[in-house]
Amino acid sequence: MRIYIIFCKFLLLTFCKNIILIMQNSTKRANDFLKIANEFKLGELTTESRHPLTMNLSTLSQTELIKAISILKNIDLGIFEVLEKKVDTILELQELFLKTIGDGNRIFFSGCGSTGRLSLTLEFLWRQSNHSHKESVIGLMAGGDSALIKAIEDFEDHPEYARHHLMDLGFKDGDLLVGSSEGGETPFVIGSVEYALKHSKIKPWFVYCNPDSELLKTTTRSKDIISNPNVKKFNLTVGPMAISGSTRMQASTIILFALGLALLSTDKSAVSKSLSNLKNKMIDLDYGFLKAFIEEEFNCYEQGVFINYHTNNLGITILTDTTERAPTFNLTPFENHLNQDDLPALSNLYIMDVHSSKEAWNYLLKRNPRCLNWKEFPITHLDYFYGFDISMKNHERRKRILKKSKCVSFNILEDGENITWSLNKQSTVTSCKGLTLLEKHLLLKMLLNIHSTLIMGKMNRYEGNLMTFVKPSCNKLIDRAIRYVTHLLKDKGVTKSYDEICFALFAELENISPSEPIVLRTLSRLLSVRN
After folding, report:
1. SS3 content of the chain, % helix, strand, coil (to 5)
2. 121 and 228 co-located in one domain
3. 386 within domain boundaries
């Protein structure tokens, strides 16, 4: 009995020591963040604010799906009002693109997260439509091509990584850099613009979606880059995002459209024509067909069924939407078959009729992958990247791994001038007659953004229009999580300081499982303390 009592005391002492260490660690991490928090408090920015038309979107996604679809479509249509006022700037950039390539130099598109993926999409579209100057356009994103399929945490907070990346790519005098930061404050993107300032006589461009007046008083880095007379600013403020802070939606759409028009339009008249063309197509298209596909995919997940997206020439756009669901709504990312412990993702993407990872990625990107291969970050290595096998070979492997779990195919295929959709018994055809390559991919992007956003609403992955499952993997997202807790507390008549919420959030991060919502866990902690 004495030995038993001694053993129990030892366990209790060990437990208490661990608790103290955890508390000390969380307190230190919270204090470290609060020291720099003023440079990441972004709540006053338009892109971080709540859209008045989607305050109850989570409820509408479950009760009035057609109304929710209509609201999101109308918000997307708002990009045209902004772009129609920016035609002169687009034409100025178009002329600069032509001159840069004509002089034998290259155009670099730099981005992080959503803007990183749109940068790679621009390179894909260029390669797909251009046969004589394929190497003249380079898309780069924080983390390299590996980040295209799985978010690489913390890269966006490091401007020095951008400098390193551009050095690796051989950025030189005469090259043009276009940095895209939806919020206008991403350190990685700003770092790439600063590098271009020092290494090329061509003024770099900085593209963003918040008013200058907001950014000038938000962070030092934003103020410095916007105030620099040697940087060409391209402001594409399009208003709040349909889901608060989710710049994968309207902000990335308008940037992709503006830069795509400048890069791919054949002449000046083609810019206005393209704007009118896609706008009319969207107005005429009945988005109601999405309802059946949203419900069908949601029902699959509810029944424990996994989705395998299959496509041919539309891979870059489908991949962008499916991979962005993971960091936005804290879903399991695509599994890497080199990691035996990876949990299966709800959905994966596969390229039809392609049977090796290398071939599949070459087909999707229209080039060989460009991975960083930085020694200190194994996740950026090429062999790891190929572990994300999007070929039909891995499709068969995934079915074997899931064993008793069922997989169904969701086909979204380019078929001549049409896009065909089929999932179980649901099928439809979207006519893309008369659309350019850019317009087709933009239309598909917006449709898929609505589709995935409303599935996530039905899965309770956001509340109202707040991303309660946001993963605080960088300083900007830590601030966002704190602000969302603030909003939800106020809805319950409770007021807590920013610092109080910060300490509670970091305390919860010490013992939360990857699948749990940190915003709701922190909210619960603060409410329980109050009671």
Report:
1. 55, 10, 30
2. yes
3. yes
From CA 179, how far away is CA 169, in angstroms rounded? 15
Same domain, yes or no: 407 and 447: yes
Quick check: 239 and 250 in contact, CB under 8 A?
A: yes
* Amino acid identity at 226: I
Question: Tens of pLDDT along 36-67?
Answer: 999 899 999 999 999 999 999 999 999 999 99
Residue 488, SS3 per DSSP: helix
Find how far residue 473's CA is from the centre of its chain: 13
Query: Quick one: 113 and 221 in the same domain?
Result: yes
Q: How many CA atoms lie within 13 A of 212 on its CB side?
A: 10
Which token pair is 486?
A: 């603030």
- DSSP state string for 150-198: S--TTGGG-HHHHHHHHHHHT--TT-EEEEE-SSS--HHHHHHHHHHHH
d(CA 255, CA 250): 9
pLDDT digits (tens, 9 = 90+) for 151-189: 887 789 999 999 999 999 999 999 999 999 999 999 999
Last residue of a domain, one of 235, 259, 279: 235
Cross-strand pairs, 139: 109
**Domain match, 202 and 106 both:** yes
CA 178 to centroid of chain Cα atoms:
18
Q: Give dist(CA 174, CA 105) in Å, integer.
A: 6
| Cβ atoms 224, 424 nearer than 8 A | no
Both tokens assigned to 245:
């802070």
Of 63, 76, 169, 164, which Cα lies nearest the Cα of 123?
169
Closest CA to 473 of 33, 2, 174, 28: 33
Q: CB atoms < 10 A from the CB of 480, how many?
A: 23
Q: In what order do the strands lie in the sheet with 407-415?
A: 347-351, 306-311, 407-415, 418-423, 426-431
DSSP, collapsed to helix, strand or coil, labels residue 207 as strand
Q: Is residue 392 part of a domain?
A: yes
